[in-house]
Amino acid sequence: IGHSLATFVRRRRQEFAVLRAIGVTPSQCRGIVTTHATTVTTVGLVFGIPTGLALGRVLWHVTATQTPLRYQSPPIFALVAILIPVSLLVANLLAAWPGQRAAHQPGSRTLHAE
Description:
- By secondary structure, the chain is mostly helical.
- It is built from six helices and no strands.
- It has helices spanning 2-11, 13-21, 26-66, 76-94, 96-103, 107-113.
- Helix 1 runs parallel beside helix 5 (96-103), helix 3 (26-66) packs antiparallel against helix 4 (76-94) and helix 3 runs antiparallel to helix 5.
């Protein structure tokens, strides 16, 4: 996520400069990067959690039946309930530095170079 956000800000440097030129504030630029981080994390969680749970249960069930182990499903609901807010918090913390870069880049030099 951190690398994705840094790349997002670097590649969209001209777009951020245009937005700053038409009146977008630095906090709104940080909000754009934070929204991007939240969206990417939410999509990853929506697809990743169900896929990971289903695949993990199937693979563990296959492993447990092939070895002399008793299959017992772990209590995953508490872990998922903790995983979602922690993931969103980490993603938004990782968005702080790229958001700061997007908010305080020199717009005039960026647009002049274009």
